[in-house]
Amino acid sequence: MISGYSKNGLASEAVHLFKRMRKVAKSLTPDSVTLRSVILACAQLGSTELAEWVEGYVQGSEYRDDLLVNTALIDMYAKSGSIAHAHAVFERVNMQERDVVVWSALIGGYGVHGHVKEAMKCAGVKLNDVTFLAFYQRATTRVLWIKGGATSTP
After folding, report:
1. pLDDT-derived band of residue 115, with 50, 70 and 90 as boundaries?
2. H, E, C per residue of 42-71
3. Keywords in UniProt for this one (predicted)?
4. Which of 14, 63, 117, 140 could cross-link with 6 by S-S, CB 3.0 to 4.6 Å?
């Protein structure tokens, strides 16, 4: 149910159901899919307070070191503009486990919020006129798509 709500734009309902599940059925332990779904819902709502609440829950759970859950947290914070929080979660991910998805979540967050130099530094790319223009174009396109109501970029 939580996943269905999250994937269909019913973020508030997803978060409400997750909180209710935790309160009513304390013996039920959410799995990785449930956690990623509620993280997605928090990202859709853009609430820093909810983001910190769900991260706190994850940190106290068995999924604290789960790569997919941490990638979802990075993406959630990046989308909400909390780049420092996104970077802090990124730093907790084991260096050997950092894959292209983890890196993309962080770098994309930097870029979409106008932190092009930080994104390039994080990616290990030397900033020159060509790389700056390419990155700027991508970030600008993403911002325009999001402001236009799209949920993903071309």
Report:
1. confident
2. HHHHCCHHHHHHHHHHHHCCCCCCCHHHHH
3. Repeat, Transit peptide
4. 14
**CB within 8 Å of 12: residues ≥ 6 apart:** 41, 45
- Domains (range + CATH), the chain: 2-114 (1.25.40)
The C-alpha atoms of residue 54 and residue 106 are separated, in whole angstroms, by: 18
Contact 77, 105 (CB under 8 A): no
Tokens at residue 69, please?
A: 């859950």
Dihedral angle at the C-alpha atoms of 36, 38, 40, 42, nearest 10 degrees? Answer: -140
Rg (CA), the chain: 16
Number of separate helices (H) and strands (E) present in the chain: 9, 0
Determine the length of the chain.
154
pTM confidence score: 0.76
